[in-house]
Design brief:
Helix content: 10-25%
Radius of gyration: 21 Å
Structural class: alpha/beta
């Protein structure tokens, strides 16, 4: 039996019925129809498959398993031909870099153990079948959520090497509160050991967005980390393989958003106990996220 390719972006060239009897094609302008298709085929968080609230990974954008409803593509051949590139084009492919499996959602898996002396691993969403090179090439935006210890050139290089064709335009790097050095001991925030100049991305990358998250009580520390980044732009830059440098943008500046998240995680949450003395009382605290952009 022939294997089924997930999220196929190749359609056959058989004759396609114009479907002019349908108002979707005879009355609605193509621009509006395309917007409808775009919205209908966006990935969304499935309310029927929420994550446990008290985990390392449950946060805005990751409150539940995600899905795309593909029923629209099965309506008729014309719709299939017009919409088949949309799901991958809109998809934000997410990867986790680190060393602890409890830090990633249950619908993600470590597909290989990176041969590094520290045992760093690259984790991606579970799929019945791996994407093809052409499908990876259709993805324009990826998110890399990384423990600082794993945010290094070797892991980034391996992530792309394992996925032939992956050539995004935008890369978002997320550092969660629990990804900072020794967060569990209330260690001052710092990016020591992260050598941005040594991390190189594919030529396709035009923009890198970095999300730095911490709890409200460490706001001043985070603001100092960001001030240090802006103070040395010639050092704190990323590069792409064709030799270009992506520089921290003062014009775009720093964006901030907040959310209320857990004070305890994983096993400690089951005991409903405050495991960390530097966290406030109760099961929730305010988190802040600062967002910077390199272009």
């Amino acid at each position: 039996m022939a294997s089924r390719t997930p999220l196929a972006i190749d359609g056959n060239d058989d004759a396609v019925h114009a479907q002019t009897q349908s108002p979707l094609f005879s009355a609605i302008p193509a621009e509006i129809r395309n917007e409808i298709f775009d919205l209908a085929l966006r990935e969304y968080q499935d309310p029927e498959k929420p994550y446990n609230r008290y985990t390392y990974y449950t946060r805005p954008g990751s409150f539940a398993q995600t899905r795309v409803d593909f029923a629209l593509l099965q309506t008729c051949k014309r719709i299939f031909k017009e919409t088949m590139p949309i799901p991958l084009k809109n998809l934000e492919a997410r990867f986790y870099l680190g060393i602890h499996s409890e830090r990633v959602p249950p619908d993600y898996a470590y597909q290989r153990e990176y041969p590094d002396e520290a045992g760093f691993q690259i984790c991606s969403k579970k799929r019945k079948q791996e994407l093809s090179s052409k499908q990876w090439a259709a993805i324009q935006h990826i998110n890399i959520t990384a423990q600082l210890i794993a945010l290094r050139e070797s892991c980034i290089r391996q992530l792309f090497a394992d996925r032939s064709g992956l050539a995004p335009k935008v890369v978002t790097i997320t550092i969660r509160y629990t990804d900072w050095w020794y967060w569990e001991n209330n260690h001052p925030l710092n990016l020591s050991g992260v050598h941005m100049r040594g991390i190189s991305f594919p030529n396709s990358v035009e923009r890198i967005v970095m999300q730095l998250e911490t709890r409200e009580g460490k706001r001043k520390e985070l603001e100092q980390v960001i001030a240090d980044l802006f103070a040395r732009p010639e050092v704190n830059k990323y590069s792409v393989t064709d030799g270009r440098d992506l520089m921290l943008s003062e014009e775009i500046g720093v964006k901030e958003w907040q959310w209320d998240g857990p004070t305890v995680f994983a096993k400690a949450a089951k005991r409903r106990s405050n495991k960390y003395p530097h966290h406030p009382e109760g099961l929730e605290m305010r988190y802040i996220v600062k967002e910077l952009t390199w272009i």
